[in-house]
TrEMBL record:
The keyword Transferase does not apply. The keyword Coiled coil applies. Residues 199-272 form the CusB-like beta-barrel domain. This is Membrane fusion protein (Multidrug efflux system). GO terms for molecular function: efflux transmembrane transporter activity. Keywords: Coiled coil. Transmembrane segments: none annotated. GO terms for cellular component: efflux pump complex.
Length: 367
């Protein structure tokens, strides 16, 4: 029994010694591996370049129809004809809707008959007055009766004309809001009509930019419905005063819209181009690492002869345009910077430049 206990203790001691030896060997191997210098990280490089950019003032706004209204009727009546389709284009003056005017037409015929009779009496009165058979007052009464009958005919004709609802201007119609046979009250909406070419964009800018603004100034507009297309226009109106509540100035620009892609009510991103180009320093967008504590880039430097290392440099970034970022402060033209491969870098790290390979940053940027 005692021999078995001693044997078990010896076996346990041997097992623990072996386990300790294996762990020690692993630690030695790991330390040796860490002691070896890491291979240089592969990066792609570029240079800080100097460009001429037209400064732009960013804002947001809304698209507004140059003319827009709800077509209504001035008189009550029963819908007898509908002469338009929802969403169609219409020319100014074209009849959209006809209200039943059969009773009005009959009344017009009666009024014309009355006018004809009044005209006969008036002409007879003229003849009698010339022959001095009728008094002047009787002649005046005959003339007044004829004039009143003529006015009643014109009034009835105007009522009939108002029962033919016409487009007040050329544009695109919305969705029809009435039906055949429906009785319409005065002012009841029939359909929306919008003139879309050209179209306005209304937006605001802070008051500090007022000296840089003028009518005729170029703008560029983008909308979410067509994210890859820029619509060009120009400022046509500037509000006469600054909004005291927001300290902003309201502007209106006009855009050509021949295809009708821009619609009233759309949210628009507006860039107002300043009058003159300015010199800016730029780097590719992939060369900048964005951080809540500040944006930075990696400068490429040669230390100890042939050894190439990177230096992390905090910069102030500006506008992004066509894949390039304006660097407002921190770099000089011609300096070499890391274009891609930033994710694995740290300050002072040795790198190997290879501009022929596509790195992970390139793939992510293209996606």
């Amino acid at each position: 029994m005692r021999k078995r206990l001693i044997l078990a203790i010896l076996l346990l001691a041997l097992f623990l010694a072996a386990l300790f030896g294996i762990k020690y060997w692993q630690n030695v191997q790991q330390a040796a591996q860490m002691a070896q210098p890491q291979p240089p990280a592969t990066i792609a490089s570029t240079e800080v370049r100097e460009e001429r950019w037209r400064p732009m003032l960013d804002s947001v706004g809304s698209l507004v129809a140059i003319n827009g209204t709800a077509v209504t009727t001035e008189v009550a009546g029963l819908v007898s004809e509908i002469q338009f389709e929802s969403g169609s284009r219409i020319e100014a003056g074209k009849v959209l809707l006809q209200l039943d005017d059969s009773i009005d037409q009959a009344a017009l015929e009666a009024l014309r008959a009355e006018r004809h009779l009044a005209e006969i009496k008036f002409k007879r009165a003229e003849d009698l007055l010339k022959r001095q058979v009728m008094s002047r007052s009787e002649y005046d009464e005959a003339r007044a009766s004829f004039d009143a009958a003529t006015a009643r005919v014109k009034q009835q004709e105007a009522t009939i004309r108002r029962k033919a609802i016409r487009a007040p201007f050329s544009g695109r119609l919305g969705i029809r809001q009435i039906n055949l046979g429906q009785f319409l009250e005065p002012g009841q909406p029939i359909v929306q009509l919008q003139a879309l070419d050209p179209i306005y964009v209304d937006y605001t800018l802070p008051e500090r930019y007022l000296p840089q603004l003028s009518t005729g100034q170029e703008i560029r507009v983008r909308v979410s419905a067509f994210p890859d297309k820029a619509f060009n226009g120009e400022i046509t109106s500037i509000e006469s005063g600054v909004d005291a509540g927001t300290r902003t100035i309201k502007l209106r620009a006009t855009l050509d819209n021949p295809e009708g892609q821009l619609q009233p009510g759309m949210f628009a991103k507006v860039k107002t181009l300043e009058a003159e180009d300015k010199t800016v320093l730029t780097v590719p967008r992939t060369a900048v690492s964005y951080n809540p504590y500040g944006d930075f880039i990696y400068l490429i430097k040669n230390n100890d002869g042939d050894k190439t290392v990177v230096e992390r440099l905090q910069v102030e970034t500006g506008e992004v345009r066509d894949g390039y970022v304006a660097i407002l402060e921190g770099v000089e033209a011609g300096q070499k910077v890391v274009r891609t491969g930033l994710v694995k870098l740290r300050d002072g790290m040795e790198v190997k430049i290879d501009n022929s390979v596509e790195l992970e940053d390139d793939k992510a940027d293209s996606e």
